Amino acid sequence: MKDRKSPLLGYLLPNFSDLVWIVAFIGVLARGHKMMNLDGDLGRHLTIGKYILGNLAIPRFDLFSHTMLGDPVTPHEWLSQVLFALAHNLAGFTGVILVCALVIATTFWLVFKRIRLNTNSLLIALLVTFLAMTTSALHWLSRPHILTFLFLALWVIVLDRMVKGKVRNWWLLPLLMVFWANFHGAFIAGFMTWFLFGFGILMDQIWEKRPLKEGLPPKFWLSYLLGGGVSLLASFINPAGIGIWGTSVGYLGESFLVDMTVEYQSPDFHLPRIWPFLIFIVLLLIVFAINKKNRKFRDLVPVIAWLAMGLYSARNIPLFAIVSAPLLSGELDSLFIFAAEKFKWVGRLMKADGRYLRLDVQLKGMVWPVLCILLAVVGLSLGFKFDSQQAGYAYDPDIFPVDAVAWMEEHPQEGNMFNYFIWGGYLLYEEWPEYLVFIDGQTDFYDEKLTRQYLEVLSVEDNWQAILGEYDVAWAILPPNEIVTHLMVVDLGWEEVYRDDVAVIVHE
Length: 508
Prior knowledge:
The protein is mainly alpha-helical and 508 residues long. It is 62% helix and 4% strand.
């Protein structure tokens, strides 16, 4: 009887992969309110996604600003925008946060699975996965870039399998790339990782003075080059074709725009949200110093390169964590085994860890994540609030001009607006197509000239009035503490028609 029950229990009881998935899923639900209020981009994504669904057409020219109306635009994340819009149509902002939770939870479920192949310790696998999760959490936002987390996690799994013998899996790379290039412009991270992985293998062969084919699966290099080459062609399967590369790579060359974007700046280690990244780096340094073993360049090169990119730009920190977690777990595993030989309490801990590992192998899992999704959907539909602020998934009226926009419904403003940059996406979500924005968070589209002009007006530089005249601005919605808000009334003679603690509306 016992043997007959065990297969069923194996499916009903949660395994540790389930635990990782559930923690990440609940973590996103708890952060959901914060995720959608840290910037205003979600509103723009929803507006574009709903336009695509409503018109069955992907906009190739700007329809959303009066400053660059009709200028060509590259739709490099249109599929994410459609996904978010569908979720929003079904369940409002709750649907969007549920999509984010599913994507992020699945990403770190895959990270855990990959880590488990690099370590014999369940404890270390869990600790490193949760460290990677908290390291990446600094960039958990309700925006399309979270899809890059998922695609990168899948991408490195395919590369790992190829070097371990499954070279026929190379076709999975271009299959992933077809979707990645349409979900988010950071698909170039896949090509960077592909190159770094191959470069590391090449370094191993040179360092060990081996022929290129020795120690590798048959036809590895052919499959590796096919995977990368066909993926390059696959990246052209998008509405902009090869032009998507001009946007994704070209933006990185716009030093002014990149430097003024907070997420592209180097991380500030004085901020507590950056500390998990610091702990990750320190742990890597410690285990590298203690462990006396030969390491493969194919493991080191991607980690070192992504670490450098994470130190240069905070936006890359989650990608570093996803790529580097298996290496850290493998190093800690070696240290764990060494410590178990030296300290009895570590040995006892290792034996207990082994028992849980054997138990985990017997448990199939997947029931509890599904149950977790169902409970979340039912709970949210009944009005339960899972976010830590207990504010629900909505725009925060202390951050965005919610009350001012509600007032505008009864008091329409005529003419072109000048708006606060961070509010651009929210204004599009609430007021497009009745109102077109001056600027929003789509920094890869708005060029350096317009961005500088926006900053010149905001900081009241010498020609700020001329800029407003150039774009025929008739009214503005701005925070009350901005100097230009006051000077529009004092110097331009505009009338203040609305004021609250968050926003002021002035009209000529």
